[in-house]
Each structure stands twice: as C-alpha cells, then as structure tokens.
Write a structure and sequence with these properties.
Helices cover 39% and strands 16% of the residues. By secondary structure, the chain is an alpha+beta fold. Helix 7 crosses helix 17 and helix 15 packs antiparallel against helix 16.
C-alpha cells in the first residue's frame, strides 16, 4: 500500500512540539532500562502451528529522532514501551516487558514464585515464563494474581499453569471480587463488537513502520494468539485484607469502578513494593476506551489513588504496574501517584463545572486546559486515553448521549444524514472538492467530516475514498495518542485495501467454557433475531447434569427468559446435558453423545433457527 508523506502543516506542528516538549528529560529511559537481564534469542513468538503471534523486533525501527510522520511525543513513548525482555525490579521481583500489550510480574516467594498478570495469550504467557526461568531457575508457581478483569491481564494464564495444578491446590488463582462476571460479560456479551473495534484501536493488522503502527501508548499492540481463563480460587473482597502465599504476605486495596469494574491494588511488604494495577501508569488512561466499554468513574479513580498514598505511600520503595516501567524511591512514587490523582480529579471536576454552565461534552473537550504542573509531566500525556474523549466520556456518564438540544434528539442515522448533507452541499463531486480545499489548508478534521458524508452516500466513489484515506492518514501522523493514530490509520487502510476483520477473538473456547448457565442463556438471548421470533411461543426445561441445576426457559415476543427451578414434566421438552454439551449444542452439534432429550426436540431447533450471531467483520469506516 502506497502511503503519502506528512503534509506541510503536520511537519510544522511537529517542529513546534520539538521546541516545546521537555525532550532533554530522559529519566524514564533510565528507569525503563534499569535491571535489564536479557531477552529471547528469537523474539518472534509462535503458536503451535508455527504462526507468529508476537514479534518484538517489528518495533526495532523506533530509534533516533522522530520522523515527521509520527508525533514526537508518541515516538518517545513508543521507544519506551518497545523495550523488551526480563528486568530485575529489585532482588526477588522481576518483570517481563514488551512481550504483549501488558507486562507480567514475577514475585519470588520462599520456594516458588507469584505471577501478577500472565499477559494476553497462552503463547506470550509461556514465552514470558520461559524467559524468567532461564534467568531465575525453575521455581514453581504458587499463585497467579489477576489485578483486574481485562483480558490482557488473565488471558495468558494457560501459558503458565494448568487447570490440573489449580484443581489440586498447587496453584491459587487470586482476583478481585466480581472478577469472573465482569471478565466473561465483557468478552462474550459485547465481545464481537469490541474485538472488531480493538483491531482499529490497537492497530494489530497495520504494518509496523514510521508511517504505520508505532504502538498504542499503553504498550505496543495485542498479541494474536489464544486467550484463556482459569476461574479464581481466592476472591479478595475488602481493602486491608491480607493473604500469604508461600511466605510472602500481600495486603490488598480494592479499587472497583476505576480502570475496570473489578480491580485491586496490592502491597508486598517483603519488597516494599506496591502494584497499582492499571490505575497509575505512564499515560492518561481511558475513561471510555475507544473499543467500547462501560464509562469509568474518574471521581472514584482519584479517590482510590489518594487512598493508596495514605495506605502505602510512606512505606513504598518500588511502584510497578502491569503496563510500562516501574518507579523507585518513596518521594518519586508519592509524587507520581499524586499527579495521577489530580489528573483524573481535575478532568472530573472541571467537566462537571462547565457542564453545569450548559456546555456539552464536545464543547468542553475543545476548551478545557490542564494545569501546567500536569501538562508538563510526561506520565499525564494522552498516549492511550485523551483529554478530548475522556471529557466526552464524563459528560456521557452523567448526562447520556443527548446534549439537550432538541434538534439533536432525533437526527437521521449516519447514511441518511450523509445523503442529505451531500445533496445540500451540491452533490458528491462538490463535497469532495470542498474536502480537497480543507485538506490543502490543513483542516483535516473538516475534510474528514465532509468525506465521511461522501463515502456514506456512495462508498464506491473513488475520489472520495482516496481523499478520505489520505485525510485519515494525516490525522494519524499528527496524533500524540497511540490509539487515535491507530484508528485513523486503520480507517485509511480499510478504505484503500478493504476490511481486515478481527485479528484477535476474545471469546475463545476456554473463556466460553467458563460461562455460568445464566450467562449461557443471556448469550443466547442477545443473539435472537427479534422480528423473526415474534410469533414463536416456546417453553422447555434444561437440567445441567454436571452442575445439578435445572432451569425453565420461555421465548415469547422475541424475548428469552429463564428461572431456576426443578422440571415438573408439564412442558413438551426436557433436555438433560452438561454445560459443555449445551455450548456444543448451540454451536450446531446435535449428534454427539451426552444429550438427553425427553419430548419434542423441534422446540429447541425452532429456537436455534432464530439465532443471529454477531459479525466479526462488520464495516466501520464505510456503510
């Protein structure tokens, strides 16, 4: 794919940033390099079929000064997160960085090791463990901790331990209360839509190059192997709760509703080390991630950071997280936590202040200014989250999608709106002509708006598609935010080359296997094609023989509902099967053993006949 050079306006903007950014401050580079022990001889990590799922060397181009095709601030961040290998944080505490979007930490206990966050996929998790053991020996894993319920913090667990080790009690799986429900719901209920948008957000299909993907701010990108999950054996429920694992005592602080709905911090007294999960990394984080999620609460986020300072600040020498590099020294750590605390608190309070003066989220995002002390700190820059979309998320959290203007209460949907805009402008050719004028003047935001109208009116219009791709490319070149850059460049790629689909499937078989019966039924309900099911009136019973639980299900008016109760024989169908067999049945397997049918099996077939699964390749940048 041929790409354009950065425009004069982008080059000029980057030249100005080179003058204003404190690029002489290299403390982060010293911290990111500290304790390096080595990396893989072959950093290309492969799956069982030999396919590469992660290759750290694809970021080797991130050296020297920033090219004009990359925002110099994002280039600096990319150089930092591209560092890969095993690092000694202190004697007994180690991290593997640069093997996935997230970081795996290894806390040595009396005779074994505690793993904190085993990366995203089986393959990268296994590679991280192998590198650790190469340098530290075959210490047995005694516990795996999930700091929170996002897949890059538990998905690689099968690369480190087996289900049999957990079932035997050899290994504990530790997580915050509510972990499983949130982890499963996010990756199954909306998993198809989130995974497709994640391809844009992390830029996994994009070429790694100065004109392509240079990282995602929080890490480089997501690996494309197989994620899995092992159900926690120990749930942490209260702040101040302590547990000892092979001689290592860990004190926990609950932080629900922050970066994840189930999240916890952990203090390891043996090493005077504090793990802040994903709540105090080296970037402004997301309050609403661009892949989609529930809006997060910056007010409680700020509160829990303040509480962490109070609980642990004066007894912490090391601060680390499952992303980025650590910090050392009590004073530095408290200052880092405090500036992060003030960042989220300021965004929350000032957005509400302006909201209560009648401003909308989009308006607030254009005018809000951060205090100089926050702006001048590298760790608050918007490499992953941004002030712009975080402010809009805060507005959405409190006020919803509607900004109160009645003209915006019932607008036309995108394609119908685009057709009307293009007609009002004077047709497709005139719309593209105006977009070209905006492009030439460096007003890429307006050009993108006009070309969005044009492409949603006629997706085959060659001039519109070409200019739209060129416009998104320039917006990508100019972005400090890694995920914004990836979104822009992903859109440009699909306009030029077509839909690249979803490279990582979050709802893998091992994750699906952990659905509770209720979640299985919910997953069925959200795939029912309502209009096709309007006239169906079904009722039947299901008994899960392995769980000794029975449910009564009904489908009326296109809605599937269920109650847990014993079957009484009064309904025309009773299925008896294991949960695994039920999942296989929904996948179309009606002939394998293990399915007990009493009554009219056509009832279930009628239900299956109106299921409408999601499309992992749905279009985004075209209608």
């Amino acid at each position: 794919m041929e790409q354009n050079e950065p425009s004069a306006s982008i080059a000029a903007n980057h030249a100005g940033l080179l003058e204003s950014l404190p690029l002489s401050d290299v403390d982060d580079f010293a911290d990111a390099d500290r304790g390096f022990l080595g990396t893989l001889d072959d950093p290309a990590i492969r799956n069982a079929a030999g396919d590469v799922v992660w290759d750290a060397t694809t970021y080797d181009f991130l050296t020297g000064d920033a090219p004009t095709s990359v925002n110099p601030s994002l280039w600096r961040q990319g150089q930092l997160v591209a560092k890969h290998g095993l690092y000694e944080v202190t004697e007994g505490l180690y991290q593997v960085r640069g093997f996935d979007l997230s970081v795996a930490s290894f806390v040595e206990s009396d005779a074994g090791v505690i793993v904190i966050d085993p990366l995203l996929t089986v393959e990268t998790g296994a590679a991280a463990l192998g590198l650790y053991r190469k340098h530290r020996g075959d210490r047995p894993i005694v516990a795996v901790m999930y700091t929170h319920c996002h897949i890059d913090h538990f998905g690689g667990v099968f690369g480190m331990v087996t289900q049999e080790q957990v079932d035997s009690g050899e290994v504990q799986i530790v997580a915050p209360d509510g972990f499983l429900g949130h982890a499963i719901a996010e990756n199954v209920y909306a998993g198809t839509a989130m995974s497709r948008r994640s391809a844009y957000m992390y830029g996994a299909p994009l070429a790694r190059s100065p004109k392509g993907q240079v990282g995602a701010g929080l890490g480089q990108s997501t690996s494309t192997g197989e994620p899995g999950i092992i159900v926690p054996t120990l749930l942490v429920k209260e702040t101040g709760e302590t547990h000892t694992f092979d001689g290592v005592e860990i004190e926990f602080q609950m932080a629900p509703g922050t970066e994840a709905p189930a999240e916890m911090h952990s203090y390891i007294s043996r090493y005077r080390a504090l793990c802040m999960a994903e709540n105090a990394t080296h970037t402004l984080h997301n309050l609403l991630t661009l892949r989609g999620a529930v809006v997060r609460d910056p007010h409680v986020w700020s509160h829990y950071l303040n509480e962490a300072i109070e609980l642990f600040g004066d007894k912490t020498d090391i601060l680390f997280a499952p992303h980025h590099w650590p910090k050392w020294g009590t004073e530095n750590i408290v200052a880092h936590l405090a500036i992060q605390r003030d960042l989220y608190g300021y965004l929350h309070d000032q957005t509400l202040r302006m909201m209560n003066k009648g401003m909308t989220g989009a308006e607030i995002a254009e005018v809000i200014e951060l205090p100089p002390a926050i702006t001048n700190t590298w760790s608050t820059h918007g490499y992953y989250g941004s002030v712009s979309h975080n402010v809009k998320a805060i507005y959405q959290r409190y006020m919803g999608w509607f900004d109160g203007n009645p003209a915006r209460l019932w607008p036309h949907p995108p394609q119908a709106s685009a057709e009307r805009h293009v007609a009002a402008i004077g047709g497709l050719d005139r719309t593209v002509e105006l977009a070209q004028e905006a492009y030439d003047s460096g007003d890429f935001r307006w050009a993108a708006t006009l070309l969005d109208y044009a492409v949603f009116t006629d997706a085959t219009h060659a001039a519109a598609r070409t200019l739209y791709a060129d416009t998104l490319e320039q917006l990508g070149y100019g972005s400090e935010n890694g995920t914004w850059r990836n979104f822009f460049l992903a859109g440009a790629t699909e306009l030029r080359e077509g839909n690249f689909g979803t490279p990582l499937v979050a709802n893998s078989p091992t994750i699906i296997a952990q659905l509770s019966p209720e979640q299985v039924f919910d997953s069925i309900a959200i795939t029912i094609d309502g209009p096709r099911a309007w006239d169906l009136n079904l009722a039947f019973d299901i008994t899960f023989s392995d769980l000794e639980r029975s449910f009564h299900l009904t489908l009326t008016n296109g809605v599937l509902v269920y109650l847990e109760r014993e079957p009484d024989g009064s309904y025309p169908l009773h299925l008896t099967l294991t949960k695994a067999r039920m999942i296989a049945l929904l996948g179309g397997d009606t002939s394998s053993d293990g399915l007990g049918v009493a009554g009219d099996f056509e009832i279930l077939q009628s239900l299956v006949g109106v299921l409408d699964p999601g499309d992992p390749d749905f279009d985004i940048v075209v209608p």
